[in-house]
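Hello,

Our lab assistant flagged a job as stuck in the queue for most of the afternoon. It eventually completed. Since we weren't sure the result was trustworthy after the delay, we are filing this so someone can double-check. Below is the sequence as submitted and the structure that was eventually returned. Let us know if re-running is recommended.
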Amino acid sequence: MDTFYAHIEANRERYLDELYALLRQPSIAAQGVGIEETARLVADRLERLGAEVKLLQVPGGAPVVFGSIGRGPRTLLIYDHYDVQPPEPLDQWHSPPFEPTIRMGEEAGTPLLYARGVADNKGNTMLRIQAVESWLATQGELPIRINFMIEGEEEIGSAHLEEFCRQHADLLRADGCLWETGGVNALEQPTIMCGAKGICYVELVARGAAYDLHSANATVVPNPAWRLTWALATLKGPDERVLIPGFYDRVRPPDEADMRALASIPDDDEALLADYGIPQFLGGVRGVERHRAHLFNPTCTICGLVSGYTGQGSKTVLPSEARAKVDFRLVPDQDPFEIARLLREHLDAQGFSDIEIVQFSQEHPARAPSDSAVVRAMSQAIRETYGQEPVIYPTMAGTGPMYPVCQQFGTPVTSGAGTGYQGSLVHAPNENIRLDDYWRAMRCMGAFIKAFA
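-- returned structure --
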């Protein structure tokens, strides 16, 4: 693999230029900005690689870029996405979010690359494509078939991907899938994750008068901000338990194998507490109990609240509308559509039938075995590249369309060959990667191809 590594080194400048071009193109799924243009950029890059490329689309959905290259007894599906989170709040960025900028990190000599989407998920997307180019240039033909599936709605819950997977099931069948994520944990240990939580994302809307009124009218006119606040207070108690009847009925507790996996995860409590700037975790959990809560407990989270006047200074107003965005992270065997129904029934029973529920995304949770061939191959690649054993997590706390892409077809999943680290600031202003991680992940991708063949 020495020639493979040398090719990466010789092409660093060009590879970075390609990444910069992708990062400069906004692709904000939530706002419908730049999606078609970014899909074309990704498709063009795969075509230059020599892949057979298709731009596929279901009605109303963003283009899915599907590229196939190589031959061999095994097929690897690579799932990534080209859409990104909205960059707001813009005033908290130290450089423009869509202008890639390198600054030195706190660690001496550590260059960081800042841009929206560089960590989630354009960096991983590009480095995996570039790794295949370096393989072809130095190792010859690929020993496996690689199918890239790169979508444009992941950040809004992959709203049309389930239908896409139904229509194109023949393209998705594989011996293993490399998921979008990869990197190191808070202790700088490389990680592998073998599952994902589901999600039910909604917006709750309370309405009052036909327009904003002078707040003196609060004596006789209902305030939707209070109405929404009272409704939200019925969803979850101070003990962090969700109060919706039936919410926990389908929760599958971790089994003995899961608990053994949790016990093998190193204790990074202090590193995380220091990074988050908080004195303790909810309920004071630590160690294995924190990992269990984090990976196997469902959640109910208020993601955003807006009503009335929130600008500088004061304005005495009685708002006409109040909105709250709420997500429920789900674990096996919860059903997002059932959770939406239970939420409606709960609000009605509590006297809040007037509150509208706007549904945004629903995704099922997914799990995959931690001893599959694709996980073993990534473990071997990590040992070769990072010089240490990976930490294998039975699932991740985040969400992705792993159920329709992989679980329904019985495809085992691994993460890895990615740039993630504790300071990536994914979904936040000043999202970044460490450039050293970019090149190391690319080398890991080459070792993974060799190990999975």
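-- support follow-up --
The delay was a queue issue, not a problem with the job. The result is valid. The longest helix spans residues 118-138. The first strand starts at residue 52 and ends at 56.
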